[in-house]
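Example S7 (structure tokens).
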């Protein structure tokens, strides 16, 4: 990486630290020209990008608005970069995911089937996605009907906190055999961590060793060694990012795993479709690569899967070449922006609309969807803020639901409530009957309340992106069958969550322990800052009550100190044989006794 790139990256990191965290319902306009320039400088575009923008500005219509001209020109530059991405692969810039390609031609029957159901010429689906571009971040809300399911706030060009999926050439800085852990410098403020189980080993890959016989971590990596690794968890709080050497490149239909073998197919697909895809992937899988077929591959043609595999193989070749000519630490592959990544992962015929209120982002996502997911291109809509009376999130009731999602108390339909509290090590959820008094008997009232709590809690965990260890205290139930019903309902509700979860059986105290994979910092942490007054406790101490005994103690200490000074003076005076010094010493002793008595009386 040259000096210009390093200075640009460091300046981008400093800007990321100083940037204000996004606010709820932020409805400020899209980034201005200076913000766009900073973002591209952070991506190490250099002066060539500015020259292209200047030349493009001269070719624009003189009657158009200046801000609109800069926006459209910048958008066109980004499209050209993506289309001719391989022309700049000789530089040390990170490889970016290919988000545009020539679409695969499908017959009318296949297009109609992929588009899904329609009503009166409009798409029909359970879900919708709304994207608002603010001055500090891009806000993404996913709704089921009118209920908020997921919410994301992604800061632009944040290569410090939002690095999930990026691939780095890192340098091992320290190896801790006692923790079976190594710390790796990847160019972020905090060193990343890689565990022994996430390190590739040649003998294991060749099959001569099992994972139980894996050598010690100090025999696998050493300080100063350069390693290619991928981020599997963003840095959270005081912890750095988590890494793995098993790199996986995600496409629309396929996940490609370099230097591996084997085939995996999503278990959510029916058996007949799994057999069809197995025959296709056996023909298109390249040597030296493992392939996983995603749920989105259902019903796609062999040509589409082959095109996806070819794109990912080409990306890996570029990553491998860049790693060989780069010096650690360096980013060598960057995942696309959050909006494109979510469309790649989530967009199916179950989505009836994707509404974006920024022209530049709308054109970029439209380019991606038309080339990669063309049957669903009619789902995209542009929300013109200049012509609408209300901001996007207020129009679709996102802000109101988001504020409720940040509250520790959640009301249930029957009158019960959930209290969600966070600690450093885990999250605790308390289920209460609250206003729910029931109609027949106590056991039925408690069962219905717990069933409502199980359904709502699964939604809240997904919406708030709560990860780690979670303990749920349900209302006490005597019947074992009622306990089983609640746990079964809870597990079924969590099955709709794509994030991996594990739920254990209910204990005799009606406690349910579970874990949920943690990837990001969570909704509350991403949209808030720690209070300077209470330091996150939620309470502030009353100075008048707290300082009162301390001040009394300090006053007595001051008296003792003065008396001690008198004693010193008395000692000095006595040493020279002065009678006055002796009298002073006696007076000092009497004062010291009075001070002790007053202190004991106060206590």
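Recovered sequence:
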């Amino acid at each position: 990486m040259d000096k210009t790139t390093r200075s640009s990256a460091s300046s981008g990191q400093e800007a990321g630290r100083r940037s204000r965290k996004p606010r709820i319902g932020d409805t400020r306009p899209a980034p201005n020209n200076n913000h766009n320039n900073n973002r591209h400088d952070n991506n190490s575009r250099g002066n060539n990008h500015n020259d292209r923008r200047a030349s493009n500005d001269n070719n624009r219509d003189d009657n158009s608005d200046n801000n609109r001209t800069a926006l459209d020109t910048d958008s066109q530059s980004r499209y050209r970069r993506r289309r001719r991405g391989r022309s700049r692969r000789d530089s040390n810039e990170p490889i970016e995911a290919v988000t545009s390609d020539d679409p695969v031609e499908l017959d009318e029957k296949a297009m109609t089937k992929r588009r899904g159901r329609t009503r009166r010429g409009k798409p029909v689906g359970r879900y919708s996605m709304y994207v608002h571009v603010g001055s500090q971040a891009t806000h993404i809300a996913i709704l089921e009907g009118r209920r908020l399911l997921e919410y994301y706030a992604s800061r632009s060009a944040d290569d410090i906190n939002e690095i999930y999926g990026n691939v780095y050439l890192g340098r091992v800085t320290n190896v801790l055999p006692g923790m079976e852990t190594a710390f790796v410098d990847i160019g972020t403020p905090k060193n990343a961590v890689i565990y022994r189980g996430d390190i590739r080993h040649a003998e294991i890959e060749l099959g001569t060793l099992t994972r139980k016989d894996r050598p010690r971590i100090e025999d696998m990596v050493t300080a100063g060694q350069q390693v290619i690794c991928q981020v599997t968890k963003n840095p959270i709080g005081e912890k750095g990012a988590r890494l793995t050497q098993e790199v996986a490149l995600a496409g629309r239909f396929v996940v490609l795993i370099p230097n591996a073998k084997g085939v995996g197919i999503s278990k959510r697909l029916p058996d007949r479709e799994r057999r069809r895809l197995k025959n296709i992937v056996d023909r298109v899988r390249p040597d030296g690569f493992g392939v996983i077929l995603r749920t989105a591959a259902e019903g796609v043609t062999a040509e589409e899967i082959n095109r996806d595999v070819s794109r990912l193989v080409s990306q890996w070749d570029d990553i491998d070449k860049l790693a060989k000519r780069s010096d650690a630490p360096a980013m060598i592959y960057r995942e696309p922006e959050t909006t494109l990544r979510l469309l790649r992962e989530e967009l199916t015929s179950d989505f009836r609309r994707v509404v974006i209120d920024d022209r530049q982002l709308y054109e970029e996502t439209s380019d991606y969807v038309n080339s990669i997911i063309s049957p669903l291109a009619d789902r995209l809509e542009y929300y013109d803020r200049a012509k609408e009376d209300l901001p996007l999130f207020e129009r679709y009731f996102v802000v109101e639901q988001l504020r409720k999602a940040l509250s520790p108390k959640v009301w249930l339909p029957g009158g019960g409530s959930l209290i969600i509290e966070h600690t450093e090590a885990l999250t605790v959820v308390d289920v209460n009957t609250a206003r729910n008094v029931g109609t027949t008997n106590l056991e039925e009232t408690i069962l219905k309340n717990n069933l409502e709590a199980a359904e709502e809690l699964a939604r809240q965990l997904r919406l708030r992106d709560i990860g780690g260890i979670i303990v749920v205290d349900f209302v006490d139930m005597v019947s074992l069958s009622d306990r089983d019903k609640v746990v079964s309902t809870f597990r079924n509700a969590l099955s709709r969550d794509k994030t991996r979860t594990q739920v254990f059986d209910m204990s005799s105290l009606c406690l349910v322990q579970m874990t949920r994979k943690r990837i990001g910092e969570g909704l509350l942490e991403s949209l808030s800052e720690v209070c300077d007054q209470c330091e996150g406790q939620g309470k502030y101490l009353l100075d008048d009550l707290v300082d009162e005994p301390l001040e009394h103690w300090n006053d007595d200490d001051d008296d003792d100190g003065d008396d001690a000074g008198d004693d010193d003076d008395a000692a000095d005076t006595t040493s020279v044989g002065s009678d006055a010094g002796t009298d002073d010493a006696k007076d000092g002793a009497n004062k010291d006794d009075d001070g002790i008595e007053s202190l004991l009386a106060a206590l």
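Notes on this example. The chain has a mean pLDDT of 79.
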